[in-house]
C-alpha cells in the first residue's frame, strides 16, 4: 500500500486509541452488541459470499466495519474500510479493521490503479453528490465493484407517491425534509447508468426484507445489489 494510506490508517489508530483510553472504564464488550461479529445485514452477507477468499477489498462507507471484519476472519481477506463518521471509525478499529477516515467523494487518489480485487459500496450510493465520479473511481482502483442500494421502483414507493406522500420505508427511513438521499434510483435506471459509464454487469441480486426476490424484482425488491467491472 502507498505510504499516504498507511499514514492515514496510523493516524486513525492513534486518535481512536486516545478515545478508547478515555472510555476505558466501560469494557469494549459492553459497548458492542452481542453477536455483532457473527451476524451480517442480509445484503452484506450476500456481498460477502461474492468475494473470493484472500481478496484485497476496499469497503467504502464501511460503517462499523462488520463486513470487513467478517471477510478478514472468515475468508482471510485484506484491505481497508473508508468511513467519515467518528463513532463508526471507532467501531471499525475495535473490530480490528484498518480504516481511513475520509469522505468517499474526496476521491481515491491515495490508491493505485487496480490496487484492490473488489471495491464495495453498500447502501450509500444514494447519498453521493458525485455519483458518476465515485463509480468510475471504484472501477479504476478495483478489478470489480459491488454496489447495493434501495430500489426506488418498489411498488410501495409508487403507491405512496400516488397517495400524494413521499415514501418512507425501512431502506429509506427519512422524511422528505431530513433525508440524506439525493440520488434515488430504480433497477432499470441503475443498469442503464452502468452501461453509459462503460461498466459491464457481472452479477445481480435482489432482496425484499432480507429475502431473495426472483419474480418482478424491479417492482418487488426493496434492495438491489450489483457487481460490475470495466469493459
Highlighted features:
single chain; 231 residues; alpha/beta; Rossmann fold; 8-stranded mixed β-sheet; 22% strand; globular
Portion of residues in beta strands equals: 15-25%
Query: What name is given to the CATH topology?
Result: Rossmann fold
- Compute the gyration radius: what is it? 18 Å
How many angstroms does the end-to-end distance come to? 25 Å
What is the average per-residue confidence, as pLDDT, rounded to a whole number? 81
Largest sheet: 8 strands, mixed
> Which CATH top level class fits?
Alpha Beta
Overall form = globular
Total number of strands: 8
The CATH superfamily title: Vaccinia Virus protein VP39
Structural class: alpha/beta
Counting structural domains, the number is 1
The helix-strand sequence is: HHHEHEHEEHEHHEEHE
- Which residues form runs of ≥5 with pLDDT under 50? 13-37
Can you count the helices?
9
Helix content: 25-40%
Overall CATH architecture: 3-Layer(aba) Sandwich
Spatial arrangement of strands, main beta sheet: 3-2-1-4-5-8-6-7
Amino acid at each position: 500500500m502507498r505510504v499516504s494510506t498507511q499514514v492515514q490508517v496510523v493516524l486513525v489508530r492513534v486518535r481512536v486509541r486516545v478515545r478508547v483510553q478515555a472510555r476505558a472504564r466501560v469494557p469494549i464488550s459492553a459497548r458492542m452488541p452481542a453477536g455483532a461479529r457473527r451476524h451480517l445485514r442480509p445484503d452484506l452477507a450476500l456481498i460477502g459470499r461474492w468475494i473470493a477468499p484472500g481478496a484485497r477489498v476496499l469497503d467504502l462507507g464501511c460503517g462499523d466495519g462488520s463486513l470487513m471484519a467478517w471477510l478478514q476472519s472468515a475468508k482471510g481477506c485484506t484491505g481497508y474500510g473508508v468511513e467519515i463518521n467518528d463513532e463508526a471509525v471507532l467501531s471499525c478499529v475495535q473490530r480490528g479493521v484498518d480504516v481511513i477516515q475520509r469522505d468517499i467523494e474526496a476521491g481515491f487518489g491515495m490508491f493505485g490503479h487496480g490496487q484492490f480485487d473488489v471495491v464495495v459500496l453498500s447502501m450509500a450510493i444514494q447519498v453521493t453528490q458525485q455519483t458518476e465520479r465515485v463509480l468510475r473511481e471504484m472501477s479504476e482502483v478495483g478489478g470489480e465493484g459491488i454496489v447495493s442500494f434501495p430500489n426506488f421502483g418498489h411498488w410501495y414507493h409508487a403507491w405512496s407517491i400516488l397517495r400524494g406522500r413521499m415514501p418512507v420505508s425501512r431502506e429509506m427511513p427519512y422524511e422528505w425534509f431530513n433525508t440524506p438521499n439525493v440520488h434515488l434510483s430504480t433497477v432499470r435506471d441503475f443498469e442503464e447508468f452502468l452501461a453509459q459509464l462503460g461498466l459491464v454487469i457481472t452479477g445481480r441480486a435482489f432482496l425484499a426484507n432480507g429475502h431473495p426476490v426472483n419474480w418482478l424484482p424491479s417492482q418487488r425488491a426493496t434492495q438491489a445489489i450489483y457487481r460490475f467491472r470495466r469493459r
